Amino acid sequence: MDRDSAEPTVDAYPGPNAQKWVEFHGTNAAPSEYSHEFVWDITREADGPFVTDVDGNVLLDFTCHIGAAPLGYNNEKLTDKLREFDLVEPMKIAGQDMYFGAGPTPEESAVPGSSHLMDKLTDLSRQYDMDTVFLSNSGAEAMENAMKITHDYRAPAKYGVAFEGSFHGRTFGTLSITKSKEVYTRHYPQVSGIETVPFCADRGCEADSCDCGFFAGETSQLRRMLAPEGGRINPDEIAFLTLEPIQGVGGYRFPSDAFMQEVAAVTDEYDIPLVVDEIQAGIGRTGEIWASDHYPIEPDVIASAKALRVGATISRSDIFPSEKNRVGSTFGGGDLLGSMMGTFTLEAIEEHGLLENATRRGEQAKELLRDDAPDYVDDVRGKGLMLAVEFDTAERRNAVVKAALERGLLTLGCGKKTIRLLPPLDSSTREIELGIGLFCEAIDAVGPSAKAA
Ligand SMILES: Cc1ncc(COP(=O)(O)O)c(C=O)c1O
């Protein structure tokens, strides 16, 4: 398959083979979060955003597996580098009890491992003075460790602050700071001391005209909660305030500068560690390595995963506990293949100018979407290739996801009535035209009646 000429072709969706695979999978797999009956055939052709399923349908994937495959499928920018190495076994090792290297010195090594990945990550976070990394397996673990290290740093703090609409993971700890859908948290016990504050989802919000609930009169809800007189929480007892710079699962909600300035001012004034969850929005998706780089905030801890292929909690050495064994994980810092892929992804972003490409292609996509948007599209928004189209109703949103799939375009819902689009970071003009063209066709087919054609 050649991505320069590939076209989506779909017979029937889901096809007969997909139905068999879905049934087989469901025999033993716990019911989980499957958005589509899309079954990628890992033995068939795929290139960039184009992928073949088990029925031979060719789809254009504008989800990048929720950003976890930031360069799409079989991307030469990664595969060429991976092919240079005879991979070793064990590739996934118990990296907590010993180190590994390749050759006499780290500088001469052609094989990047976890130490090289950490070196790159701190380089990319220098603007926040970050010099220390703890690697783990997943986003939730990256956030768990962010909660742990800030609790140590601020001991004996007993509070944490999270925002309404947030999603930070599905472990018991991270569910306590996840404030989006009730299905994630129902009946599960909570870590005590988590306070919730409104998230500003209005990009144009100003303090004096705010109707998103964050600003209230002369002050913000956050500041009011911490006020020396009349506040209900002592800021000295807060371990962290955690924020997705752009809310993902909650609906691709982009905050206003006024909101971000207030978050920065309050955390700065009271020395509260600001933990940013960059698991979905980070590593180039928005046209910057970190979504935080777009906003007037100074994070103290960054949690990353997905596009990075491993989990990472990044911060300053003074925030990390110095005591041995305070953080750890069997397969955490020792995932050789994951670390290599994360390093190559970061190298590809740098070598191929993919931040700039994401910004340009994102502008192209938004322009095309806005040109074609009918009345029942409430909003088209995005930074880089973290794009969202919000509809007037959930019913119409769901019908458009289905109609897009029938035309060969994979998209994902989020929030209540929004579709998220995450094309690969190296998408071409043609691929964006093709994908947005199919998306607009799907919107037209659904039409005002909200029925998929
Ligand atoms: C913003 C955000 N934080 C945390 C997570 C949890 O990451 P993981 O599923 O790797 O545990 C996700 C996953 O979707 C996410 O989008």
From TrEMBL:
Species of the source: Natrialba magadii (strain ATCC 43099 / DSM 3394 / CCM 3739 / CIP 104546 / IAM 13178 / JCM 8861 / NBRC 102185 / NCIMB 2190 / MS3) (Natronobacterium magadii)
Cofactor(s) this protein cannot do without: pyridoxal 5'-phosphate
An annotated GO BP: gamma-aminobutyric acid catabolic process
PROSITE patterns: AA_TRANSFER_CLASS_3
Protein's name according to its UniProt entry: Class III aminotransferase
Top-level EC class: transferase
Transmembrane regions: none
Record's keyword terms, sorted: Aminotransferase, Plasmid, Pyridoxal phosphate, Transferase
Family: Belongs to the class-III pyridoxal-phosphate-dependent aminotransferase family.
One Gene Ontology molecular-function label: transaminase activity
UniProt EC number: 2.6.1.-
Pfam families, A to Z: Aminotran_3
Superkingdom of source: Archaea
CDD domains listed in its UniProt record: OAT_like (cd00610)
